[in-house]
Design goal:
The structure is a homodimer of 458-residue chains.
Chain A: E1 9-10, E2 20-22, H1 46-49, H2 55-62, E3 68-70, H3 73-82, E4 87-89, H4 91-97, E5 102-107, H5 118-130, E6 135-140, H6 144-156, E7 159-165, H7 166-171, H8 173-181, E8 185-189, H9 195-203, H10 211-223, E9 228-230, H11 237-256, E10 263-267, H12 272-286, E11 293-299, H13 304-307, E12 309-314, E13 323-328, H14 350-357, E14 362-366, H15 368-382, H16 388-407, E15 412-417, H17 425-432, H18 443-451
Parallel strand pairs in A: 5-15, 6-7, 6-9, 7-8, 10-11, 10-15, 11-14
Antiparallel strand pairs in A: 1-4, 2-3, 4-5, 12-13
Chain lengths: 458, 458
């Protein structure tokens, strides 16, 4: 009976929107390991990061203590354009599965960038503007982050240079056009624009590129151009901080109806969505106030949590970025071109890596065709065509709901639906045509990436 | 001060959603002229329409008297998946324009079909299912209607055959894939599947197709296959009835904050969005309870209101459909291939045509490049990449707001933002590259279409 009162979509009022981000690290006993200087292999100081990142973002990156950070008014104003995002009760999916489980998803795709990435893009653009910069550089894989940053830069009148992983650039010309519509420069990576790009092209002619390589190029451009800094859409602590808005809204919406989740599921590439979605729930878990089963879902073709090493590694192929301790496949690892969509970063957020290492969360790797099966089923019953990335979470949410069907348990499952798949129709086409395959790297494949891990004694 | 209270997005609660559609014709003194049998040129009876359309939809098509129609529970359930849609206060656009005008837009694009078309698609699929049909056939131009119908048919387990105007089929392969993901068959039109398609291909080899031609093919397939009927996404009275949900929600949201619009603006191709958006406002106007300036915006390259004739005409190129009295460019008129996006139908809803003829509304034709200028400006400040169709309304809303800037008038402008432009990036690319042109048919161009108008003495 009480069930009836829960609407299909729970929207918070504008006045209920969170006014602070939550810094998960403040509640961690084992803090994530510090970033290291790639030259000295010693912990980085703020002044060493300043040539790469915006000042305020460096401060956020290194701040392990402040629990709540006020969201500046200018960012709140922008958030109001597309937030609060709905928490949807997946009544149709539950019915289609015949499960007693109650499924909710936080839908972050109802904005033109098509994903949650906008939450951090606008924050990073704001701090760049505040610092008086001319512009920012970045990399993008599937294109979601680049699109989000283009929108954010357009809003604040900043120049935006995007290095887009070549295979995505070719598969997703329309993403490029959205970025251009927002005034961004988009270059396929590796390119001849940078020293590192030239080097990679010389060593691997015909490479389809990787995030690690595009990062190197974007960092080089930022550090060699006056008035530019580099910004990154995932992995970093600052990004998880900004993305905590997802989890904070989710928790507030659930609390409104007295709902307590049993399982929280998010897809994980670099960890921006997962880290944001789980933040307040993980906080409760760390403080011993509540318990949740928290599941990271990653592609079997790029399995950093489930098959990677917990080690210091470079974020980029060019090895010019700071080193982070994280679950990694090695910065030399490049996922198969057969791998659709994003979630193709070789590493993982340090914060999430530490939490996974300390067993506060689980990880599951899923295969591509099973993911698109789930995506299609979800699209048909819930009316939203999901991004391939998000569909990793859908896959596991469906699997958990089907387990409940077997056991009769009425578990409450919450997952993050990070975005829409409108720019991923090549991948859907390959699935619709029955041409999509799976790709699981062999141990030998992985050994190549691991061999390149730096030796760090810290 | 009071101003402050209006949020960026006004959402109705699920419980506030309209439970009835509104039939505008019930309030019209001059009813739209009846449909005619293409053979006898006499007013059509329900039984003559039954081989083409679903029974219940025929009844709705011919019913001029019932003012409110209950929305069946099954349709309300589906509406809850993506409705109520937000009414957005365009604070950012107002600021960018520096206008004292207050601008609102009803945003219908936050669903996977990407437009308002889903509102009628789900209704038509429901009635087809209720009648025990196997499936439905239809045409689609830009692809919005086809996508919407695919989603609706997938929901009710109906077969869906879509004839897609060839130039759109080629320009928008991703639209096709979305339809396929929802299980639809998609065929470029004209095709060799139908007699009429073969005939048109023989007469006009290399034609890029037209809506009128695709309609003929879809009707032929529906009437020659057991258990199929034809459905249409615009023009018809039944469609305007279903789309009244847009206007009813808009009015309810405005009423909640005591807002009375001065100007209501909608783009118009066949009239589905415009007819739906203005329905309750036009009702008040017809009943003498309120006055509004109502503006239809159409492309200068397909100017049925502003340069068409008010005459009986065929809806389709093959001349097998019923005749409707409407503003039309003639069923032989095919807009330039240079024309981007939808709004390419040669005719216009009979209901809207009658209202326009009776001077209850105005019409403005706008050129393509001016439309994409407005689209880009809107995308950058409001954060939504609009469909080319919707951008026609944006263009005129901006122009009216700029007039207010000159005069200092604080007019309230409401426009319909029918959808998103994610599948229209070829058009944006052509605009971004400075390659987009305008195309205004000459009087001689139009004379060709007019010469084919049927002679009807009624």
């Amino acid at each position: 009976m009480e069930e009836k009162k829960i609407p299909y979509k729970i929207y918070l009022d504008e006045s209920e929107m969170p006014k602070q981000w939550y810094n998960l690290r403040a509640d961690m006993k084992n803090k994530p390991a510090p970033l290291l200087n790639p030259g000295t292999l010693q912990p980085l100081k703020a002044e060493e990061l300043a040539p790469i990142f915006c000042e305020e973002l460096v401060a956020q990156e290194l701040d392990e203590d402040t629990k709540f950070v006020d969201i500046p008014e200018e960012i709140l104003d922008f958030y109001k354009m597309y937030r609060p995002s709905p928490l949807v009760r997946a009544y149709y999916l539950e019915k289609a599965l015949g499960t007693p489980a109650k499924i909710y998803y936080k839908f972050e795709g109802n904005n033109t960038s098509g994903s949650h990435k906008l939450n951090s893009a606008i924050a990073q653009a704001y701090y760049a503007k505040k610092q008086g910069l001319k512009g920012v550089t970045t990399e993008t894989g599937a294109g979601q982050w680049g699109t989000a940053l283009s929108m954010a830069c357009s809003y604040f009148g900043l120049d935006c240079k995007v290095y887009m992983v070549k295979c995505s650039y070719e598969q997703k010309p329309f993403r490029r056009e959205v970025m251009r519509t927002y005034g961004a420069d988009v270059t396929p990576s590796p390119s001849e624009n940078t020293e590192i790009g030239k080097k990679i092209l010389a060593e691997h002619p015909g490479t389809t590129g990787s995030l690690g390589c595009a990062i190197s190029e974007a960092v080089e451009v930022a550090t060699t151009n006056e008035g530019y800094r580099y910004v990154l859409g995932s992995v970093l602590n600052q990004v998880l901080l900004h993305q905590s808005i997802i989890g904070l809204e989710t928790k507030k919406a659930l609390d409104k109806y007295g709902i307590k989740p049993d399982i929280i599921i998010g897809c994980a590439g670099g960890g921006s969505n997962l880290g944001g979605l789980i933040a307040p729930f993980m906080g409760e878990k760390l403080r011993g106030e509540a318990d949740y089963r928290i599941i990271a879902v990653e592609p079997a073709s790029c399995p950093s949590f489930t098959r990677g090493k917990f080690a210091y590694d470079f974020a980029d192929t060019g090895m010019i970025c700071p080193l982070a301790k994280m679950y990694t496949l090695g910065s030399g690892f490049i996922p198969s071109a057969n791998h659709a969509g994003g979630l193709r970063f070789h590493g993982m957020s340090s914060t999430l890596s530490q939490l996974y290492h300390d067993k506060y969360m689980e990880a599951i790797a899923v295969e591509q065709t099973a993911v698109f099966d789930a995506a299609t089923q979800f699209a048909r019953v819930e009316g939203i065509l999901p991004a391939p990335e998000s569909s990793h979470a859908i896959r596991v949410a469906i699997d958990e709901a089907l387990k409940c069907k077997e056991t009769g348990e009425e578990k409450t499952i919450v997952f993050g639906l990070t975005g829409t798949g409108y720019f991923d129709m090549y991948a859907y086409q390959s699935f619709n045509d029955g041409k999509m395959g799976d790709y699981i790297p062999t141990d030998e494949d992985l050994a190549v990436g691991f061999a390149g891990l730096p030796k760090v004694d810290i």
